[in-house]
Amino acid sequence: MFENEQIEEYKNLSDTELIHLYKNGDQTAFQQLAVRYIFIIRNKSSDLYNMGIESEDLIQEGLLGLHNAVRSFDENGGASFRTYASICIRNRLVSAVRTANADKNKINSISVSLDDETEMYSLPDNEPENAVIIREDLQGLVDYLNNNLSKTELSVLSLYLEGKSYNQISEALNVSKKVCDNAMQRVRRKLRIKN
């Protein structure tokens, strides 16, 4: 993700110096901090991978935790930035998992169902062979979605197909808009592979 993006002139700066640069508008300073702390994010998220949230989303949440740490760090607070960032990252990850698990019933209740989908089609009674073909195609698509999409992806897709915006989806599922966007990107990739 960030490993190859180390900027030579930033490598020798301390965390505190990078934080000051970032707070003064230097986005590259945060990228350098992300390079330094990505291993902590991956390490802390690896314990939580199978606890109700996708691994890619956990990494995103960890980066958001790092970002919060950078924005709120007070060097006079008594803790090193590494300690403070580790706590912020862990708290963000645990919060994301708790939220995902709290909404598990909501997510589980949103699944793709053939009966729901076929009600959208009005087929003429005099063309039963078309009805069978369409039903088989729909069943194939539904099976593919249910077998290849995660619960989060299914939930986001279902709400998206209902015409909900990312803001509405993130509110309904109690996740960030970035999680919704990442899930939809994965859905699109998986649907391209199917075709």
Biggest β-sheet strands, sense, barrel: none
Percentage of residues in strands: under 5%
Overall mean pLDDT stands at: 76
Helix-strand topology string: HHHHHHHHHHH
From the helix content, strand content and strand pairing, which structural class follows? mainly alpha
Shape: elongated
Rg measurement, Å: 22 Å
The helicity comes to: over 70%
Number of helices: 11
Total count of strands: 0
Which ranges are low-confidence, i.e. pLDDT below 50, for 5 or more consecutive residues? 105-126
Ends distance: 28 Å
What would you note in describing this structure?
The protein is mainly alpha-helical and 195 residues long. 73% of the residues lie in helices and 0% in strands. Helix 3 (27-46) crosses helix 5 (81-102), helix 9 (151-161) packs across helix 10 (166-173) and helix 9 crosses helix 11 (177-194). It is elongated and about 65 Å long. The relative contact order is 0.10. Residues 105-126 have low confidence and may be disordered.
